[in-house]
Design brief:
disordered C terminus; globular
Length: about 240
Amino acid sequence: MDDSRTLNDEHRRRWLARAVRDRLRRHRRGLVELFLGVLVPLCGLALLARWVVHPQPPPWDLAVLGWIHSYATPGRDRVAVGITDLGTWGGVTPISIALLSYLLFRRRIALSLFVLLAMVGSWILNDAAKAFYGRERPALWNSATRAMWFGFPSGHAMASMALGTVVTILAWRTRFRWAVLALSAVFVLAVSASRLYLGVHYPSDVIAAWLASLSWVIGLRLLVFPRAHRSPRTRG
């Protein structure tokens, strides 16, 4: 009797181990994406948040801003102001509305919800984080633009990264994926660099915004809309 029970227990353990291995093998790619796209950015965000609770920014924040400001000119100020507007009503907002309208026109309801939640959710999370941490913006020189409220994380950097991640996910199964990825990277870097050049954010504000957007959008795609990476042309 005991031998039979032992054999049954051993059989169940082997079956469970085999089932776990098979499931891990089937979901290996998703687990890697979850680790690299969500967990790693969240860990980085947590490390950056530790600096925010201190009254003084870390030395590297100030050093980077000082180096960037050494290249400031009135002409570059005007260019930076134009680029920084792309992070809100001048770029992110109209592009998001156009993308959402296109997906609704194509009756891609799941993808439309993904885009809507990704963009609106990033905005809500940004406001919540700013209210929670209450980090003051840098005031190292007179900026060519006006910035209100708290600075951590950067709203412009977070919105541009959210949009860049969304369009890259949607284009990933198409032949345009590398072009879209490159354009998205240039867009995000340009908007984020303009915020640093104008002196309205610390570098840690911008990096935190990138990490927060990556974890939010990729997590949303993996956990809520697992098929949202498909092209709008792909049916099924």
